[in-house]
Design brief:
Helices cover about 60% and strands about 0% of the residues. With about 325 residues, it is mainly α. Helix 1 runs parallel beside helix 4, helix 8 runs antiparallel to helix 9 and helix 12 packs antiparallel against helix 13. The chain starts with a helix and ends with a helix.
């Protein structure tokens, strides 16, 4: 499985076309190919997929020595100081204040977290990883500043099942803030999360999924709140039991039918299965200390397993519509 995922990421992080550029042109001079606009993250069809493709390569290089050399070679090609400063120059524009916000920005913070953890534990070739870590800092600083200025102005959470969703991005951002001991950023995320979600009860899971979802708004919210409430796990148990109050899990959380995996939007449902599985795993872990939750945990575990199997089965190396991001 690791080799399969490495092959997918390696084949697309520097593949420029096809490409969907989320690009605001300010003048004729902005009409450039992707490799010139965002020279570190121009592959994988779009910017956010390129970012999490690089995250995947960093994770695989960190945990699997058999894949490390080729993954590191690809990372070294992208993570040069010059390329990453060009990324900053592109994104740091008044006309691009909402660029990849929040989904792509949150994935970049996940990448920063991965590199930070890798740098701390690496014994061999640590200098290279340290240099990558330093090279991404200017873009990292810009992204934290941008999210920090945006979040207090977000009056309501976005509860979609796609890139605009609030809960998913806040989960990754909180992981990052805690890893970096950025107390101010972490407290902002925690405070806004409680404002947005702490009063939610009886979430209508039967309204999910929408036909092009790759995230569950409900599960992402729960996955965020188990992070926010981690200092007192019983608070999360109480919140979750009111949030998902039915003893029988909603049938709508079963793996969906993927009618056409070659359709770039319909294949989102495969991603929904995969993201459901990892969110459920986080929720299960947060419930693990309370033996009264054993039956619910067992149900959630089986649900996670079914979704993971469906999502992973749908990944097809010959189908770039899904392969560039799944």
């Amino acid at each position: 499985m690791r080799r399969r995922f490495a092959t997918l990421a390696l084949s697309c992080v520097h593949r420029e076309y096809p490409n969907k550029v989320a690009h605001v042109l300010v003048s004729d001079s902005d009409a450039k190919p992707p490799r010139q606009l965002t020279p570190a993250f121009y592959g994988c069809f779009d910017w956010h997929s390129a970012v999490h493709g690089h995250w995947l390569l960093a994770r695989l290089a960190r945990i699997d020595t058999s894949l490390a050399a080729e993954c590191r070679q690809a990372l070294a090609k992208s993570f040069t100081k010059e390329k990453l400063l060009n990324e900053v120059e592109y994104i740091d524009s008044d006309q691009r204040q909402s660029f990849e916000r929040p989904y792509g920005l949150a994935w970049f913070l996940q990448l920063a977290t991965e590199l930070d953890e890798w740098e701390q534990e690496e014994k061999d070739n640590a200098d290279e990883i340290h240099q990558w870590r330093e090279n991404i800092r200017p873009l990292e600083t810009l992204i934290v500043r941008r999210l920090s200025s945006w979040l207090p102005k977000l009056s309501y959470p976005v509860r979609s099942g796609e890139h605009s969703q609030t809960a998913f991005a806040l989960g990754f951002s909180l992981d990052y803030a805690r890893r970096m001991n950025n107390t101010v950023f972490a407290q902002l995320i925690e405070q806004r999360s409680l404002v947005f979600f702490s009063s939610d009860k009886n979430y209508p899971f039967n309204y999910e999924p929408s036909g092009e979802d790759f995230l569950s708004a409900g599960l992402a919210e729960a996955d965020l709140m188990r992070r926010v409430m981690n200092k007192n796990p019983q608070d999360f148990v109480q919140w979750f039991n009111e949030f998902l109050s039915t003893e029988i899990l909603p049938a709508s959380l079963e793996p969906p039918s993927i009618a056409d995996p070659t359709d770039p939007k319909l294949i989102h449902l495969a991603g929904l299965c995969i993201s459901r599985a990892w969110m459920l795993d986080g929720i299960i872990d947060a419930l693990s200390f309370d033996t009264e939750q054993n039956n619910r945990r067992d149900q959630l575990f089986e649900l996670s397993k079914r979704n993971a199997e469906t999502g992973l089965t749908a990944i097809d190396e010959s189908n770039y519509e899904g392969g560039h991001w799944l």
